[in-house]
Amino acid sequence: MPRAVDGAKRKNHRKKILKLAKGYWGRRHSNFKTAKDAVTKSLSYAYRDRKDRKGDFRRLWIIRINAACRTEGISYSRFIKGLHKAGVIINRKALANLALEDAAAFKAVAEMSKAALEV
Fold it and tell me: What are phi and psi of 101, to 5 degrees?
């Protein structure tokens, strides 16, 4: 049986890879062999970084909360411990948003945390 080199399946596969490589630099966007490697690597990075993004945002929220806590005269870890003792259930995303947009509300939450620690 003769070897198929220009079949529809092969052409569609190559077209799909080159479409994914659109915008890459040099041969990586036009040469199938190099584009295939670049696309494979970029897709694995994309998969990994979708998982990492969650941690990155959590880290950012903690930094923002810590900065707001320091202005209230309490450390981040003591603040979180106080919230747990007080039974306040607010996630870090909401706390960071409060710290940025509503300083008065964050101050009230910080006071609740401090009060719970004193008891």
Answer: -105, -25
Cα dist from 35 to 30, 48, 89, whole Å: 7, 20, 49
Calculate mean pLDDT across residues 51-69: 97
DSSP class of residue 87? T
We report the CATH number of the domain holding residue 61 as: 1.10.1900.20
Could you tell me if residue 3 is inside a domain?
no
Which domain, by its residues, includes 114? 8-118
Residues 6 or more apart in contact with residue 58 via CB below 8 angstroms: 92
Burial of 113 (0-12, 13-18, 19+ CB in 10 A): buried
How many Å apart are CA 91 and CA 102, to the nearest integer?
Answer: 16
Question: By three-state DSSP, how is residue 3 classified?
Answer: coil
Predicted confidence at residue 61, as pLDDT, reads 97
> Domain for residue 67, yes or no?
yes
The whole-model pTM stands at: 0.78
Q: Is the dihedral of CA 106, 110, 113, 115 positive or negative?
A: negative
